[in-house]
Amino acid sequence: MPADFTPAVETLLRTIAEAGDKGAQFQVEPRLRYRLAGTNYVVNQRSFYPLTSGAYVTDGGDDMAPVRLTDRGREWIRQHPVPRGSRGPYRPRGPRPPHQTLEPRPKRFGYAGGFSAELAERMVVITCPNNGTGGVTLPADGWEQRAIDRHPTLHSIEGPNIAGSYALRWRGDSRTDGDLLVQSLAIVRAEPARSS
Description:
Distance between the termini: 71 Å
Strand order of the largest sheet: 6-7-8-11-10
Number of helices: 5
Structural class: alpha+beta
Shape: rod-shaped
Strand content: 15-25%
Largest sheet: 5 strands, antiparallel
């Protein structure tokens, strides 16, 4: 007997088993899916294929009839008990493969006046307003040194780049990322004076 059912197929098999001898009645849903009558449980049609082709369940040849477990299905359930205290099919979860590991998105923050900011590795990137319209509104000349003098944990400021953005690098600052975003926006927003 195969032990390589997907979680969806195993859930379906156990759901049918829970219905007992009367069987589980499914209703046809759009997009090749079935709904267990009287519930919110919806399953794809393809999840039935390994169970019907392997004779684990049967509907007696009538698609509208309740689906029942066969002797082979009961035997599979006996050989694969759900651990006590577990809900649903038991699938030990290992680490995700590298191609499925989700990269954390940088936090973004918007502020009135058109400025926006995002934070990556204690570096806040500030994009100045009107950067897409050809006349970027930049802070006043010399603001970078004034900001570094006033904020000891502000390590350096790079920019502006072609897109009208500045990178503010913070070091040894115990504030949260959100606080640094707010502080960085406040620093740059207080200085706009010239257009490029």
